[in-house]
């Protein structure tokens, strides 16, 4: 009775999960489509007004309706980035990554990391000041900065933005670009007036729409940073709820060396003080603005001096910050960490709790990838190496199997005797194993040790950019995307895409391969003694086939390969034992642990 | 920890073990060298000895459950303090 109820409960929970996903998925897809569509349609610029650091008044610009000349733009060109900086407001709001395309197609547009406010998904970096004395004229969003004629920001040519407020203060932002994704900004104020001025310099990264996220539990997207040695993460949802309790401030912390910004699955825009020795004040913020279609979310990470700086006559105040805007390549982040003193910068990649495993796994995989040239093959080889490392554990357990045959008659006798009570039979068999010093199972400890290891590999494959657009054999052109083939149109024989109907009508070839390997691998494993668990056990390959249908192909291939290796390993050990015993392999492990069938 | 007291920690741990039995165990297969299996042992130990002692017994049992231990029939010790002594095999 109880078992029946439990079975129903399980079925119901799975049903609810599937239903939830079904209702959720179209919404997610729609959101993504809407954002893509909107990106193409030019939208009126949203009214400025969100607060800067410590409610900086810089966003309060004069009437937006006032006709103005279009803003001048400073070209930005590096080996790996290109774009422009808006000289109105000193905003770096147009940056694409030259090495990354949006799709596998080499002719597809480059990945855009920063986008202007005039578009539908504004995402930019900005440098500015807040006048804490309440009277100094500081640059605002509509301030037109000047540069030398024909200036271009390249690794070879730094550029300095200048603005004179006409009241004795000269503002400067000196920008340098490196060979990769780093812009260093030095904000200077020179005071020539008699009175000292009180200013708070700041830098910020601001996102004026919520980006589409992958929505996977094992991948963090949103606010991220390492402040005073501690990794701080906040999803857009938690930042919103935390901010609601504290006037929009989800986090506000004074910190030494550190960094903070926004992370996507593969991309990052983050700030860090140029001098690791100085202390800064870093905040994660959220505000809601009235947009043309209702309230719109604005997200901001800012880094400011810890307290206002008083600049006396003839003095100059300086704040140096670095802006990273690019791809989260592990080795690049490690190099920035080591050369520039940006602590734990590699944690921008969500290596997770098993960092001590995932990080070395990544380096091993990457080494194999460079050696072989195909990331998929690198995964296969690395999995073989891991399996080999655990082989002694598995082998030890099977050493005793040849002795099983001697016990064969005794086993049959026990099973016969306890036909009505399988638990009793198993209990006696275990006692027999003990007295004869044999045991077919490898034990729970080896399994428990292997779980984090294989989870770590799974996690690495999920988060690293190396798998993005990496091809495999046959029809797999992108290991990080779901396998495109589909059983429900007979792998393309029927010219119709059933996924238009519902997302569940997608059953790719590799998921089916995975299901089959899992099924055969389970055949070699002993079943759970409990009948309900045994039922679940039988359903597992089917459940997993459906679950993994929409997963990145690289993960499904890894999973299939892992199953195949498990089967091969078990077969190999069994044949080894059979040879040693001089007979055919003992029916051993699976049969013995299934006393009910006896 | 009194035996069988409905302590929240005990319930949480029992829930975790049950969750394992119905989700992970079917994926991993049964590889226990003992009777009762480690997870059943954990449930029983938590039930009779409470969260702290129960978790302690279960943890030691999992550590024993490796290829270098013969395994076999190994019930939860009855009285607190009896340790993990393996009881004589009952005659069938």
Question: If you had to describe this structure to a student in words, what would you say it looks like?
Answer:
The complex is a heterodimer of chains A (about 600) and B (about 90). Chain A has helices at about 1-40, 235-245, 330-340, 355-370, 375-400, 405-415, 420-435, 445-465, 510-525, 530-545, 555-580, 590; strands at about 75, 80-85, 90-100, 110-115, 125-130, 160-165, 170-175, 180-190, 195-205, 220-225, 230-235, 250-255, 260-265, 265-275, 280-290, 295-305, 310, 315-325. Chain A is an alpha+beta fold and about 600 residues long. Chain A folds into two domains: about 115-350, Beta-galactosidase, Chain A, domain 5 (Distorted Sandwich); about 375-445 and about 465-580, no CATH class. In chain A, helix 4 (about 355-370) crosses helix 8 and helix 6 (about 405-415) runs antiparallel to helix 7. The longest helix of chain A is centred in the N-terminal third of the chain and has 39 residues, at about 1-40. Chain B has about 90 residues and is mostly helical. Helix content of chain B is about 50%, strand content about 5%. Chain B is built from three helices and two strands, in the order H-H-E-H-E. Chain B has a two-stranded parallel ribbon. In chain B, strand 1, helix 3 and strand 2 (about 70-75) form a beta-alpha-beta unit. The longest helix of chain B has 27 residues, at about 40-65. Chain B is globular. Residues about 80-90 of chain B have low confidence and may be disordered. The chains are: A alpha+beta (about 600), B mainly alpha (about 90).
Distance between the termini of chain A: 25 Å
How many individual helices of chain B?
3
The secondary-structure element order of chain A is HEEEEEEEEEEEHEEEEEEEHHHHHHHHHH
Shape of chain B: globular
Query: Could you name the ranges of chain A where pLDDT drops below 50 across 5 or more consecutive residues?
Result: 35-66, 582-598
CATH topology of the largest domain in chain A: Beta-galactosidase, Chain A, domain 5
Task: Summarize the main sheet of chain A.
Answer: 10 strands, antiparallel
How would you state the average pLDDT of chain B, rounded? 77
Which architecture name of the largest domain in chain A does CATH use? Answer: Distorted Sandwich
Q: Any idea how many domains of chain A?
A: 2
Give the fraction of residues assigned to helices of chain A. 25-40%
Number of helices of chain A: 12
Shape of chain A: elongated
CATH class of the largest domain in chain A: Mainly Beta
What is the gyration radius of chain A calculated from CA atoms?
A: 30 Å
Work out the strand percent of chain A.
15-25%
Q: What structural category characterises the helix and strand content of chain B? A: mainly alpha
Mean pLDDT, all residues of chain A:
80
Identify the strand order in the major beta sheet of chain B. Answer: 1-2
Low-confidence stretches of chain B: 81-92
């Amino acid at each position: 009775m109880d078992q029946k109820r439990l079975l129903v409960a399980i079925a119901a929970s799975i049903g609810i999960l599937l239903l939830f996903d079904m209702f959720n998925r179209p919404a997610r897809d729609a959101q993504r489509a809407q954002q893509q569509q909107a990106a193409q349609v030019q939208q009126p610029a949203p009214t400025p007004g969100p607060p800067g650091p410590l409610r900086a008044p810089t966003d309060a610009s004069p009437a937006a309706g006032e006709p103005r000349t279009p803003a001048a733009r400073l070209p930005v060109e590096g080996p790996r980035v290109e774009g422009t900086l808006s000289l109105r407001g000193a905003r770096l709001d147009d940056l694409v990554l030259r090495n990354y395309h949006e799709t596998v197609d080499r002719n597809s547009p480059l990945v855009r990391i920063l986008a202007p406010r005039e578009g539908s998904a504004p995402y930019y970096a900005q440098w500015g000041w807040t006048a804490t004395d309440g009277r100094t004229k500081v640059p605002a969003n509509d301030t037109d900065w000047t540069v030398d004629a024909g200036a271009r920001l390249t690794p070879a040519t730094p550029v300095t933005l200048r603005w004179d407020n006409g009241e004795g203060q000269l503002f400067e932002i000196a920008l340098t670009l490196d060979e990769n994704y780093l812009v260093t900004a030095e904000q200077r104020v020179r005071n020539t007036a008699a009175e000292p001025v009180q200013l708070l310099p700041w830098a910020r990264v601001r996102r004026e729409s919520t980006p589409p996220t992958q929505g996977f539990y094992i991948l963090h997207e949103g606010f991220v940073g390492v402040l005073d040695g501690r990794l701080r993460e906040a999803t857009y949802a938690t930042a919103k709820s935390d901010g609601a309790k504290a006037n929009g401030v989800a986090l506000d912390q004074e910190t030494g060396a550190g960094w903070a910004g926004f992370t996507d699955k593969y991309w990052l825009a983050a700030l860090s003080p140029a001098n690791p020795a100085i202390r800064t004040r870093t905040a994660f913020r959220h505000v809601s603005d009235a947009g043309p279609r209702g309230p719109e979310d604005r997200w901001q990470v800012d880094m400011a001096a810890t307290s206002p700086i008083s600049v006396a006559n003839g003095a100059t105040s300086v704040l140096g910050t670095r802006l990273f805007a690019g791809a989260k390549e592990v080795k690049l982040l490690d190099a920035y960490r080591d050369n520039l003193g940006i602590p734990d910068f590699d944690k921008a990649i969500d290596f997770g709790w098993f960092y001590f495993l995932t990080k070395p796994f990544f380096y091993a995989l990457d080494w194999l990838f460079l050696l072989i040239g195909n990331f998929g093959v690198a995964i296969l080889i690395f999995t073989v190496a891991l399996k080999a490392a655990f082989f002694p554990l598995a082998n030890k357990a099977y050493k005793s199997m040849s002795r099983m045959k001697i016990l064969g008659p005794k086993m049959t006798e026990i099973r016969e005797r306890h036909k009505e009570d399988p638990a009793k039979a198993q209990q006696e068999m275990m006692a027999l194993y003990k007295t004869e010093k044999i045991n077919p199972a490898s034990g729970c400890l080896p399994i428990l040790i292997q779980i984090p290891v294989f989870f770590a590999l799974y996690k690495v494959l999920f988060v690293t950019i190396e798998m993005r657009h990496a091809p495999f054999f046959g029809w797999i052109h992108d290991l990080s995307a779901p396998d495109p083939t589909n059983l429900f149109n007979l792998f393309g024989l029927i010219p119709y895409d059933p996924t238009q109907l519902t997302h569940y009508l997608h059953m790719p070839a590799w998921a089916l391969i995975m299901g089959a390997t899992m099924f055969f691998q389970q055949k070699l494993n002993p079943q759970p003694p409990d009948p309900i668990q045994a039922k679940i056990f039988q359903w597992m390959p089917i459940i997993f086939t459906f679950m993994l249908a929409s997963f990145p192909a690289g993960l499904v291939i890894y999973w299939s390969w892992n199953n195949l290796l498990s089967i091969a390993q078990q077969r190999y050990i069994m044949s080894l034992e059979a040879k040693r015993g001089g007979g055919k392999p003992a029916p051993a492990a699976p049969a013995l642990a299934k006393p009910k069938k006896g | 920890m009194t035996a069988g007291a409905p302590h929240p920690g005990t319930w949480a741990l029992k829930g975790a073990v049950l969750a394992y039995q119905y989700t992970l165990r079917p994926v991993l297969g049964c590889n226990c060298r003992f009777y009762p299996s480690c997870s059943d042992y954990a449930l029983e130990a938590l039930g009779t000895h409470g969260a702290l002692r129960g978790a302690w017994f279960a943890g030691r049992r999992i550590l024993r459950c490796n290829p270098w231990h013969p395994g076999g029939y190994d019930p939860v010790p009855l009285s607190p303090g009896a340790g993990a002594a393996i009881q004589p095999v009952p005659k069938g």
